[in-house]
Amino acid sequence: MLTPQNAARLLTIYEDMAVAARHNDWDRLAELEPQAAAVRAADDSTPPGAAALPEDSARALAAVIRRIQVLDAEIRSHAEPARDAARKLLSGAVRDNNVRKAYGAVGP
């Protein structure tokens, strides 16, 4: 169960991840993802319902979760096209290498 404290930590990490994604700073994004995973994993060990939240705290937690979801979608909107472009470049290089191995170097 996600605690309010860990939700706040996760929100901060996701905000930093969104900034990194906007700036195509994939190294920074790669540094932050394990931090987010560690916070999520810490909450996985908390049994559901272990700490019932007052209604106002539950509403605040829900708002933080919604904000994290929005940031996650934004991060993906930047990262997925970059990942696909990298995949395309790499597959072209692999194809080129395979052609060179099979037929030798092409060109002068």
UniProtKB/TrEMBL annotation:
Gene3D superfamilies: Flagellar protein flit. Its main location: cytoplasm. It comes from the Bacteria. Keywords: Bacterial flagellum biogenesis, Cell projection, Chaperone, Cilium, Cytoplasm, Flagellum. It is found in: Cytoplasm, Cytosol. The keyword Chaperone applies. GO terms for biological process: bacterial-type flagellum organization. InterPro entries: FliT (IPR008622). This is Flagellar protein FliT. The lineage of its organism: Bacteria, Pseudomonadati, Pseudomonadota, Betaproteobacteria, Rhodocyclales.
